Each structure stands twice: as structure tokens, then as C-alpha cells.
């Protein structure tokens, strides 16, 4: 269980810096009249959060990992959801980084 929690924490740490940077870039783009989207993940069933920034999605994932840590147990569905959230955040942040460097 500790190994799993450490791996989840490592993912959160890696995503945190990328999320802060991406949200700062989104703020800059919005000030320039761009980034007029309403949500990062439109019509997504993986997250309950709905935001035009990445941090609320990362916070939701971190809360779920914290709940797993506090209870020292998890069900497979919860773990699968957290893993999907982490994967989606990694992929979307990478795609965003590529898209913003290309423009």
C-alpha cells in the first residue's frame, strides 16, 4: 500500500509544477484575448470539477489520494478513477505544452 501511495504522490508532485505553469500561461493567454474556453475537460466523466484551469482537476485528484491514505484502503473503482485522472492530466498538459510552443 505504501508503494502505491508513494507512486501516486510522485505523480501529483510532477503534475503540480506543470499545472502551475500551464495555468499561468492560460492567464497570460486570456489577458491577450485568447483562451476563451469554459472548461479544460468538456463533458468528461472522469472529473467532477469543471474549470477553465488545470489546478481544480489536480486538487480533486489529490483529495481522492488523500482519502485513500487516510482510510488506508481503497476499492478498485476508486483507484482506477484516480489513475485515469492522473493519465488524463499528464496527457492533456503535455498536449497543451506542445500546442503552445507551436504557436
Major sheet size, sense and barrel closure: none
Number of strands: 0
- Compute the number of structural domains: 1
Overall residue-averaged pLDDT value: 91
Q: What is the rounded distance between the termini? A: 43 Å
* H and E order: HHH
Task: Give start-end ranges of low-pLDDT stretches.
Answer: none
Word description of this protein:
By secondary structure, the chain is mainly alpha-helical. The protein has one domain. Helices cover 72% and strands 0% of the residues. It is built from three helices and no strands. The protein is elongated, with a radius of gyration of 15 Å. The termini are far apart. The model has no long low-confidence stretch (mean pLDDT 91).
What's the gist of this structure?
The chain is 72% helix and 0% strand.
Write the layout of secondary structure elements.
Elements: H1 2-31, H2 55-71, H3 76-102
Helix pairs in contact: 1-2, 1-3, 2-3
Features:
single chain; 103 residues; mainly alpha
Amino acid at each position: 500500500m505504501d508503494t502505491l501511495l508513494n507512486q501516486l504522490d510522485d505523480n501529483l508532485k510532477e503534475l503540480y509544477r506543470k499545472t502551475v505553469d500551464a495555468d499561468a500561461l492560460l492567464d497570460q493567454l486570456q489577458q491577450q484575448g485568447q483562451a476563451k474556453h469554459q472548461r479544460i475537460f468538456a463533458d468528461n466523466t472522469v472529473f467532477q470539477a469543471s474549470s477553465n484551469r488545470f489546478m481544480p482537476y489536480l486538487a480533486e485528484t489529490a483529495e481522492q489520494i488523500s482519502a485513500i491514505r487516510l482510510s488506508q484502503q481503497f476499492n478498485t473503482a476508486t483507484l482506477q478513477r484516480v489513475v485515469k485522472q492522473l493519465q488524463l492530466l499528464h496527457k492533456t498538459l503535455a498536449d497543451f505544452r506542445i500546442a503552445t510552443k507551436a504557436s
